[in-house]
């Protein structure tokens, strides 16, 4: 007779009809293929619109270098800030599946509106003599479209990777082994979409027109939504566990109420349910840890904690609920150290593009590649390094570390931080060489210097290599270390580093521009970069990244990994 655990998943997942998920009919790679294609199309849409956005703002919105760069980083930062909202709704009420669906509709509307602003008369700026003159209404509509997209992506970014990982049952050893591979394939699908966007779509935008350049991403996003819906019957859905913010607040309130209570040295005396499963829906129990002992006061039982045999949740919390908050607090320093890495990463969409705009973009006498298209070398780098890491680096490192993954999550992310520093150094060296070439030949007022844009390839390639170590490491780290019922929230936290990285880039550019333009000076980043010092900006980011790396080493040494007490049955 076939046992129930051989028929149904053991991690609490359900199917689209809200029935227990059947192993053979749902999840694993048969469901993930729809998720991976969806992510590839969505990333094609996002990067197809965002990669060259700085040039769109310069050309069609008639903005200067600093204004265009800051608007791009502010918008991109918002795209990584809105996932907090999407994650909260997914973990608390909607679940990841329905959050993806609802926010995708907003995303498609934003993409469609942006396309309309590129070709509909009245929405498109009038251009004469190569200079466009947008009116306030046209500018406003473009930014409304951009920020609708930012809102829409907030429900997709924190949910898709976690939703894909949900398709593999942690309680099934065979399925569990495939989960790490899923993250590699997931990141690969992102970069396949980015590859098409940074090559084909950017070329279309610069040579055919913005209407086609924005219209194709809009269609790609519509295809992404349709493909995601096609796989609905195959998906495994995690039930939302209630508001994680409420549970966090309950622990804080209970701890403060019992501030004078002494925590027993024997952790077994702390309150926990007697059931095998956690009282938090869809979550496994967590073992007690000795960090943040003050929070343990919330799990100390005193008179009056129970009302009619039920615990008062604002006075008494389970060990698992307390450990949820501890898990979040432990990852926060690691999370913060990723902000500067994202600042480096986001230079590809701003300073790298502006630097490339000043260089010779010709391949042969007739073909010209847009500077923004060089980000395809970042994508090619990821596509190259992801399988190399999985097939060559991990087996080799495993011999020395004894770790099944080759490196721990923290080691992997740290290596990426080091590589990102070298990327900034290489970009700075190239700018020194370029400025010396300008000085030597008196090319100060030349729009493009006769120096091939392909000298930028090494800096893009290094950023791509750093991504494979740090970004994929972050995906695994935040999913693995997140409490089961807070995985979307922790994914959103990891994405928030990108938002803050963008905002930090904006802040750095603003401060640098303010300080260096005093007394009538042109500053480091003038509209004519031939008369500026972009290399100084690169050195500044490199130095800050080095300081950040040493802080990260100290934090990583202190970090304690999450411990799970029991599985869901």
Descriptive report:
- It is a single chain.
- The protein has a two-stranded antiparallel sheet with strand order 1-2. It has a two-stranded antiparallel sheet with strand order 3-4. A two-stranded parallel ribbon has the order 5-8.
- The two termini are 19 Å apart.
- It is globular.
- Helix content is 63%, strand content 4%.
- It is mainly α and 569 residues long.
- Strand 3 (306-307) and strand 4 (310-311) form a beta hairpin.
- The longest helix has 37 residues, at 83-119.
- Helix 7 (157-165) runs antiparallel to helix 17 (487-516), helix 11 (319-337) runs parallel beside helix 17 and helix 16 (457-481) packs antiparallel against helix 17 (487-516).
- It has helices spanning 4-7, 28-50, 53-59, 65-79, 83-119, 136-153, 157-165, 173-207, 210-230, 244-257, 319-337, 339-345, 351-357, 375-401, 409-441, 457-481, 487-516, 534-558, and strands spanning 126-128, 131-133, 306-307, 310-311, 359-360, 362-363, 367-368, 449-452.
Kindly list the characteristics that best describe this protein.
two-stranded antiparallel sheet; 569 residues; mainly alpha; 4% strand; 18 helices; 8 strands
**Structural class by secondary-structure content:** mainly alpha
Largest sheet geometry: 2 strands, antiparallel
User: What's the alpha carbon Rg, rounded to whole Å?
Assistant: 25 Å
Low-confidence stretches: none
Number of strands: 8
Q: What's the helix count?
A: 18
Helix content: 55-70%
CA-CA gap between termini? 19 Å
> Which strand order do you get reading across the main beta sheet?
1-2
String of helices and strands:
HHHHHEEHHHHHEEHHHEEEHHEHHH
- Beta-strand level of the residues, as a percent range? under 5%
Overall pLDDT confidence: 85
Identify the overall geometry.
globular
């Amino acid at each position: 007779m076939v046992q129930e655990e051989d028929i149904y998943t053991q991690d609490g997942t359900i199917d689209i009809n809200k029935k227990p998920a059947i192993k053979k009919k749902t999840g694993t790679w048969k469901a993930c293929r729809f998720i991976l294609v969806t992510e590839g199309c969505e990333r094609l849409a996002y990067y197809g619109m965002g990669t060259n956005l700085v040039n769109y703002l310069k050309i069609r919105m008639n903005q200067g270098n600093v204004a265009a760069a800051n608007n791009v980083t502010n918008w991109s930062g918002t795209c990584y800030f809105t996932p907090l909202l999407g994650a909260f709704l997914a973990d608390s009420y909607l679940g990841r599946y329905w959050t993806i669906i609802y926010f995708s509709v907003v995303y498609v509307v934003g993409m469609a509106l942006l396309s309309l602003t590129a070709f509909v008369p009245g929405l498109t700026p009038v251009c004469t003599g190569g200079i466009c003159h947008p009116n306030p209404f046209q500018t406003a509509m473009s930014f409304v479209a951009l920020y609708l997209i930012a809102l829409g992506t907030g429900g997709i970014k924190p949910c898709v990777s976690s939703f894909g990982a949900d398709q593999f049952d942690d309680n099934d050893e065979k399925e569990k082994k495939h989960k790490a591979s899923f993250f590699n394939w997931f990141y690969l699908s992102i970069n396949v979409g980015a590859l098409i966007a940074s090559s084909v779509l950017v070329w279309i935008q610069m040579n055919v027109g913005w209407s086609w350049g924005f219209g194709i991403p809009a269609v790609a996003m519509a295809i992404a939504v349709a493909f995601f819906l096609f796989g609905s019957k195959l998906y495994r859905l995690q039930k939302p566990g209630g508001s994680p913010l409420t549970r966090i607040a309950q622990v804080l309130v209970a701890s403060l109420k019992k501030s004078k209570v002494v925590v027993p040295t024997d952790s077994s005396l702390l309150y926990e349910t007697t059931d095998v499963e956690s009282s938090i829906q869809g979550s496994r129990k967590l073992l007690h840890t000795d960090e943040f002992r003050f929070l343990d006061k919330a799990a100390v039982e005193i008179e009056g904690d129970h009302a009619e045999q039920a615990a008062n949740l604002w006075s008494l919390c389970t060990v698992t609920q307390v450990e949820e908050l501890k898990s979040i607090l432990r990852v926060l320093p690691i999370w913060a150290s990723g902000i500067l890495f994202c600042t480096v990463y986001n230079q590809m969409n701003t300073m790298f593009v502006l630097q490339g705009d000043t260089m010779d973009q010709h391949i042969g006498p007739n073909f010209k590649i847009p500077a923004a298209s060089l980000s395809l070398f970042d994508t090619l780098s990821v596509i190259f390094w992801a399988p190399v890491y999985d097939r060559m680096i991990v087996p080799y490192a495993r011999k020395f570390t004894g770790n099944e993954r080759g490196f721990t999550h923290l080691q992997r992310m740290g290596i990426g931080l080091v590589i990102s520093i070298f990327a900034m150094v290489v970009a700075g060296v190239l700018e020194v060489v370029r400025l010396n070439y300008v000085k030597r030949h008196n090319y100060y007022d030349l729009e493009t210097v006769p120096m091939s844009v392909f000298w930028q390839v090494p800096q893009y390639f290094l950023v791509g290599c750093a991504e494979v170590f740090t970004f994929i490491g972050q995906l695994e780290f935040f999913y693995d270390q997140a409490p089961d019922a807070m995985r979307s929230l922790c994914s959103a936290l990891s994405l928030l580093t990108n938002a803050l990285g963008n905002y930090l880039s904006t802040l750095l550019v603003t401060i640098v521009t303010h300080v260096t333009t005093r007394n009538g000076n042109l500053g480091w980043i003038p509209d004519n970069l031939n008369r500026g010092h972009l290399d100084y900006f690169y050195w500044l980011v490199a130095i800050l990244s080095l300081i950040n790396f040493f802080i990260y080493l100290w934090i990583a040494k202190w970090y304690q990994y999450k411990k799970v007490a029991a599985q869901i049955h």
